[in-house]
Amino acid sequence: MSAMNSCVVPPSVRTKLFNSDRFIAPTTRLNQHRSRCEINRRGFAFKGIVASGVSVMGSSLVTDRVEGVERLPYKPEGYNFWTWRGYKIHYVVEGEGFPIVLIHGFGASAFHWRYNIPELAKNYKVYALDLLGFGWSEKAIIEYDAMVWRDQVVDFMKEIVKEPAVLVGNSLGGFTALVAAVGLPEQVAGLVLLNSAGQFGNPNQETSNSDDSALQKFILKPLKEIFQRVVLGFLFWQAKQPARIESVLKSVYINSSNVDDYLVESITRPAADPNAGEVYYRLMTRFMLNQSKYTLDSALGQLKCPLLLLWGDLDPWVGPSKANRIKEFYPNTTLVNLQAGHCPHDEVPELVNQALMDWLSSVKPKTSPWTL
């Protein structure tokens, strides 16, 4: 794979305080301006492949951590487990108070919220769950679709949280949180998206004819699947190389000092599951390459709660223009611009935690329909 496009670095970054519904968060570690780097959908899928299809690394974890920010202890065996539709689902829960549910991105796990859970748990009851097929949750052999994870989060809210909450999601977890919020309008008091996945619909795109000819059904489709398995199998093998793992992680972390053994192992350990390769293949062919089925505008058009965007403007995958477009489409939005990459919650957690708690103070809890 060719190297990722580099992003330009400016001489300085100005800091601003909250002004109306827009806030630009300061950072003393970065002096970079908004990236205009974008990659196409196929490139994003390949990066997701690399992040998810990797082998187990050593279990010796470094003790370095973000200065002044408490970190969730890493547990190789996981924290808590819940059975959903017969599948084993991993989750973390800490603290007491108004609930917050954290949803990780593609290839990650609940441990990606390592610097957010302890801080938020000082004032809130914080849940972080692993989506089916990721992290410490079961690697189910199913047809993966965005609605599978939506249903998982909806049922998690009903069976584990059992009261209205705020949903927070990064990347794939962001889109999952969005469609879950639409599915539970009376139980989701607020929604937070950090560099969310998903795309706006193209009104000019022609719908394809679903009728398959005999040639397509019996010859072309089987050949296509064989080709995909060969190619994706090679990429899965390549993704296991330590150099590739480090390279991909550092490409989306502007401050690569946070790419440590804790982070790497929390991503790579789940790939030891015997079903990981098959899950990876299904994610790539059934989900990642068919994202246009569900769009941001269709989901945002049904959203009923306040929205906070915590956006890493230097993200080489999802630039700030997407956040601006979401805000234009859904006016009940607060936008917080951060000088960070694709995972601001792990790269600048102290800024994300503060911005999130400031916003949460204005969110009004709803009455639980499950306790009436």
From TrEMBL:
Ranges for domain AB hydrolase-1: 99-347
Molecular function, one GO term: catalytic activity
InterPro entries: AB_hydrolase_1, AB_hydrolase_fold, Epox_hydrolase-like
GO annotations of cellular component type: chloroplast
Alphabetized Pfam families for the sequence: Abhydrolase_1 (PF00561)
PANTHER family: ALPHA/BETA-HYDROLASES SUPERFAMILY PROTEIN, ALPHA_BETA-HYDROLASES SUPERFAMILY PROTEIN
Protein name, entry field: AB hydrolase-1 domain-containing protein
Organism this protein belongs to: Turnera subulata
Lineage: Eukaryota, Viridiplantae, Streptophyta, Embryophyta, Tracheophyta
